[in-house]
Amino acid sequence: MNNTSPTPPYEPPRDHYLISAGGHIRSWLLTTDHKRIALLYLISVTVFFFIGGVFATMIRIHLLTPGGVLVTPETYNKLFTMHGVAMIFFFLIPSIPAVLGNFLIPMMIGAKDLAFPKINLLSWYIYLIGGSFVLYSFSTGGLDTGWTFYTPLSSIYSNSAVTPAVLGIFINGFSSILTGLNFIVTIHTMRAPGMTWFRLPLFVWSHYATSLIMILGTPVVAITLLLAGLERMFHLGFFNPAMGGDPILFQHLFWFYSHPAVYIMVLPAMGVVSEIIPTFARKPIFGYTFIAASSIAIAVIGFLVWAHHMFVTGESTYAALAFSFLSYLVAIPSAIKVFNWTATLYKGSISWDAPMLYALGFIGLFTIGGITGLFLACLGLDIHIHDTYFVIAHFHYIMVGGAVMGYVGGLHYWWPKITGRLYSEALSTFAAIVLFLGFNLTFFPQFILGYLGMPRRYSSYPPEFQVLNVLSTAGASILALGYLLPMAYLSWSMRYGKVAGPNPWPATGLEWKTDSPPPTENFHVTPVVDWEPYDYRNRPDLGLAAGAPLAPAHGDD
Amino acid sequence: MPEHSEHIVSPKVYLTIFLALILGTGLTTWAAFRNFGPFNIVIALAIATAKATLVVLFFMHARYGERRTRLVIVCAIFWLAIMLALTLSDYQTRQPRMGRLLSQAAYYDA
Amino acid sequence: MHRTGELYGQFQTLEQQKESATLGMWIFLVTEVLFFGGMFLTYTINRHYFFTAFGIGSNTLDITLGTVNTIVLIMSSFTMAMGVWSAQTGKKKLVPLFLILTLSLGCVFLGIKFVEYKQKFEHHLIPGHNFDITYRSSHPAPVDDPEEMALEKQEVDRALASDPDANSHAQLYFSLYFAMTGLHALHMIVGAGLIIWLIKGALGGRFTPHYNTPVEIVGLYWHFVDIVWIYLFPLLYLIDRHR
User: Among A9, A2, A60, A49, which residue's Cα sits nearest to residue A404?
Assistant: First the structure.
């Protein structure tokens, strides 16, 4: 870019995807534009996030006193079950892939859309149908089996609305499968000329790995829930000991998907972090190949560890040994990512924008969550802390401190691209800090509670645990504020925010080369790629803040 | 990969494979009525796998297709194998024999 | 719709479009492998533990009908492959012919399955519904061969002697039988629907050497359904037949 002549003031695009197809509701509900579908998903997953959040709020209020102040024990069972089902199946699993993945993947590879745009829309409708069944279940008797639906409680003895819920999750599984299928085919066949596999952004790699898990794992939980549902409806005996069936078989089948499912939830967030860190450290990512390979490794090894959820429920000791060992193995590729992100920061030129705060928060909190996972993978220790609040703290550190932070950070990072607007820097910094503090206050006490022996899924507890529970609830209220603030200022920015240019941060990556918001066909001319990703060293055209040096050529693979 | 140089499989090949599949069906039915002890199941699965392989290679064109297609097929089989093998590793290493149902009365008395 | 094999907007070339469609169908079939796989796992574990009851259950299945069905399905795979070949070589008249043959054979399969299911209902072999493995041999119908019934009664009694809960375990066998063959039949019905859609297109001359992707990918799906049956047949029908 020419530095000598003054650049003309930026003209926001007259025609872009939010406008081109029209504003009529039909143009949204029948769209096949991946960007519009992403926004449809954004609205739906936010609704389910709220619903899950309402249940969480009720849980935390109920646990303010040892005797439980809000609901009966039976209702309490329904609260934590519905919280889990709403959050896992209808928020965490779709969130980043269906919102950010849908929006960005075609742009990041230089394509006009995904390979199967109509199937993309179908995915969203299937999600809604599945969600409706589950909401019907919630409102007609609720669900009290735990989100894990262990048999024979779920298939025989529970008096709650299990069948519609199980049907809803079954249907929703197809939404996941179709999204994953779309991503895999798109990444294989629709890359722009010059976009080789090792020039792909790491966000794309992580979504490819996520899609592998969606394809290979989801069908198994589908058949499992189907069999459990059939058992409930027709009194069959697959998982009923009184008829020769085996509850442990249900657990094997269920966890075969549900463990890799947690990688569906966290891998996309890792992809987001891999995009944010180089941008705000003004440095190429350290160890690109290792990060890409570790995504695939997590997807593969993640399928080999599922029975670590069953150490104390009846599997054989020898199998437990094998799964424990494999669980330690799966931590390695995750650790590699953390090392590489850290190395990227080293000697970088750091900016503290909101997306960076979320990304840094992810690294710290995910590390804690991941390491406590290793605590749980240790057989002897697991006997002590299985089914306690230690487990709850562990997975919330990963799911909330990790995945949700990645999602919110990603929304902040790509918001200017999606909407063409900037949001308030002060408010977003404040909200990120509030979120981080609120999160830790909510969940760190739960590690202690769990270690001291407070069981999970109990509606009451011994009085000596009250102080920690009250701290946790206080933290939850702050955490809630941390979520409400972005919803407010991001929505506000859509109308009143400053106009963002094509590349406000600035960042490398194809998506930043097109307008904000992008035109419907993403690029006016199909790009031809002849540069390496995260190429901050050779891109003076991106413009750095006055006085800030280019990061030295350092620490690359 | 340009598909117009795609290999069009001739009906003769299809017919041959078809006859092989029918033969396999007859074979497996015949073998079922003979007592090979524990090998009955092995033979049955071996024949079924051979038939499935023929269908995948020739009817589904995997033999003439891209390498990527073959990778996809291998992955499917591999993941199914993981699910079966690791689950069975639990069942096969348990000591007590499963499946002995107590009668309802004994269950509550014991 | 795309009557002449036009390019969809998101693709750059017809090549890319065909590559994507084919890869998409293969990946979908992977999900089906894992979907049926869960039931195969359940089957494996239950058969291992309840071998006797599974043998009894299997012997109540009509092996003639089962073998005929297997042959019918293999034939339909052959005619499907020939349908793809006809499209690829521009034999426009043959395409709908082979597709109709495939559909007919599929319907024959489903018809035979219906007959078998009806038999199960008459013999009190529907799980959860007055299931009784001893029913048929203790209440032989006039059409039943008395020698065969005596043999079955003998086998059932022997099974109950070695495994007092053989009735429950046999019910497990039949739960799996209906779940697996039922799901398979459902897939066949979907496949039949897809073939009807193809026949409509083929009658309109839509499939040519230049554009025949729909025929090919429905073919992939149909062959997969055939493969599932290739495994279901020995696993369900041929247990302990040598007795």
Answer: A49
Mutate to test the interface with A, among B1, B67, B68, B79 (most CBs of A within 10 A): B79
A216 closest CB neighbour out of B79, B86, B98: B79
Residue labelled with tokens 């080369």: A513
A113–C contact, CB cutoff 8 A: yes
Q: CA nearest B52: which of B25, B90, B83?
A: B25
Q: Which of B83, C173, B93 minimizes the C-alpha distance to A314? A: B93
Query: Per the confidence metrics, is the pTM higher than 0.90?
Result: yes
Mean pLDDT of A237-263: 94
Question: Running DSSP on this structure, what letter comes out for residue A160?
Answer: S
Q: Tell me the pLDDT tens digit for each residue of A502-519.
A: 999 989 889 999 998 999
- Annotated domain spans of chain A: 29-533
Whether residue B19 is contained in a domain is answered as yes
What string of DSSP letters covers A145-157? STTTT-TTIIIII
Let me know how many helices (H) and strands (E) chain B has, helices first. Answer: 4, 0
Domain ranges of chain C: 31-237
List, as ranges, residues 321-340 from A with C-beta within 8 Å of B: 322-323
Residue B25 lies in a domain: yes
Nearest-Cα distance to chain C for B30, in Å, is 10
Interface contact flag, A235 C128, Cβ < 8 Å: yes
Task: Establish if B79 belongs to a structural domain.
Answer: yes
- Res. A242: pLDDT tops 90: no
Residue ranges making up the domain that contains B87: 3-93
Interface of A with C in 167-206 (CB under 8 A): 177, 181-182, 184-186, 188-190
Which of these ranges, A257-271, C106-120, C139-153, has the smallest mean pLDDT?
C139-153
Q: The domain at C31-237 falls in which architecture?
A: Up-down Bundle (1.20)
**Does the pLDDT value for residue A456 go beyond 80?**
yes
Is C24 in contact with A185 (Cβ distance < 8 A)? Answer: yes
Contacting C residues, span 222-241, partner chain B, CB-CB under 8 Å: 223-224, 226-227, 230-231, 233-235, 237-238, 240-241
**Contacts of B61 by beta carbon, 8 Å cutoff, 6+ apart:** B7, B9, C216
Coil, strand or helix: which one is B62? coil
CA distance linking residue C8 with residue A225, whole number of Å: 37
The pLDDT tens digits for A31-79 are 999 999 999 999 999 999 999 999 999 999 999 999 987 999 999 999 9
Q: How far away is chain A from the Cα of B31, in angstroms, using its nearest Cα?
A: 30
A509 φ/ψ sector (left φ>0, alpha ψ -120 to 50, else beta)? left
One-character DSSP codes across A100-126: IIHHHHHHHHT-SS-S-HHHHHHHHHH
State which residue of chain A sits closest to B106, comparing Cα positions.
A242
- Token look-up 């003076």 returns A540
Task: Tell me the shortest Cα–Cα distance from C33 to chain B, in angstroms.
Answer: 7
Residues on chain A touching C37 (C-beta within 8 angstroms): 219-220, 223
Tell me what percent of the residues of chain A surpass a pLDDT of 70. 95
Provide the domain count of chain B: 1
**CATH entry 1.20.210.10 includes domain A29-533:** yes
> A242–B75: do the CB atoms touch at under 8 Å?
no
pLDDT at res. A6: 60
Which ipTM score applies to this complex?
0.92
What mean pLDDT, rounded, does chain A reach?
92
Assess if residue B106 is contained within a domain: no
